[in-house]
Amino acid sequence: MSTSLSRSSSIYSTPPQTPSSGTPPPFIMCTDFLPNLSKDLSLLLSENEDYNMIINVGEQPNVKQFKVHSIILRVRSSYFRAALSSEWAKVENNYITFNKPNINPKIFEIILTYIYTGTIILDESISSDTMSILEVMMAADELCLQEMIDYAQDYLLLYKPGWIQRNFSTTHKIALEHSNTFTKLLDYCNEIIVNDPELVFCSEDFNSIDENTFISLLKRDDLLKDEVVLWNHLIKWGTSRASISKDLSNWSSKEFEILSEKIEKSISHIRFLHISSGDFYKRVKPFAQCLPPDLFEDILQYHLVPGHQPSSDLIQPKRATIDSVIIERKHAALLASWIDGKDELVQNKRDCLDNPYEFKLLLRGTRDGFTGTDFHQRCDSKSSTITIMKVSNTGELIGGFTPINWSSRNDWGFTHESFIFHLG
């Protein structure tokens, strides 16, 4: 894939007429031949003419030497502008020598082509390997090439969202490390955390997620996960970070102590009272040594002693969910925005963590019936309702909101707040 960030254009302008002695105003013409300029500059790179700088890129055994022109690098990159200053430049045999062991030669070649020609070329070996595109972005960030970063981000978000979701932890970690420049990628990752946290748990590299992100997920009230499933995720995550055997039968007190240290900050965010007695016995009790003794004893009494009142730290609400087989939390957040009269601007929309409304299911067609009688039996006298239907062949969602009470009587109500909608 080859994309040019420059274009040829012609601009013609005639300045305003001004009184004169009869001399016609000058005709100004400005024409850009940037593609030709780009092509000619590429010859400097490919033919190694008049170079004054040698860059050794990569580490053994994968090292490549690039013969370049320092003036072009200084003009195009603030990194090289600083690195090639008189205080830092190293000269050997009349050539400036420079080493970049931390960049892959193939990645650096892409960057050099961009620096010389303004063209980003991602061949099949790069475009098919999303991690290589991230490497291009990281190298471009080090060399202060924001235009290149922005293009690569747009490419990833347009063509590789599935890869990002499958490798969420890796992508999010890299975006966090480059938060000042990978802003689009970081925003996309944060949107997933807020609106589709299940995608994070389902990612192939979930066990490598950073601790703060994991804790932020465990704090969520709207996770569509059983509490014991979250506990299992925590144990797998902690075991992976501790680099200890997954076979519990081979553990000594040392392994339990190591795991305890890894999950110490996360344990308080597991809502143990919402784990069934059976799951507690099978899944939690084997790791009793990893829990504070007082906490484990409190949970044990809750399950074994009728009427036991657990400590206030243990009492946490059950995670809220939307009882729907048609819409998801992101749909509910969008509907809440429309109910509040918010427009389509992203900054004004509500997200899944900012939804003030509780969505209570009144009628489900597959459960309660599809007739008008079924509808009015369950919905009459109910106000502020949303009716949603799913088109069988297309999966489209259509519906409407009304703040007025439903009624079987043949009359009309008046409101400016109702609306109908379509979700593709």
Automatic annotation (TrEMBL):
Sequence ranges of Pro residues compositional bias: 16-25
InterPro entries: BACK (IPR011705), BTB-POZ/Galectin-3-binding (IPR051481), BTB/POZ_dom (IPR000210), SKP1/BTB/POZ_sf (IPR011333), TLDc_dom (IPR006571)
Regions of compositional bias (Low complexity) in chain numbering: 1-15
UniProt region (Disordered), positions on chain: 1-25
Any single Pfam family the record assigns to this protein: TLD
Domain BTB: 51-124
Residues annotated as domain TLDc: 325-424
Protein name: Btb/poz domain-containing protein 19-like
Organism: Rhizophagus irregularis (strain DAOM 181602 / DAOM 197198 / MUCL 43194)
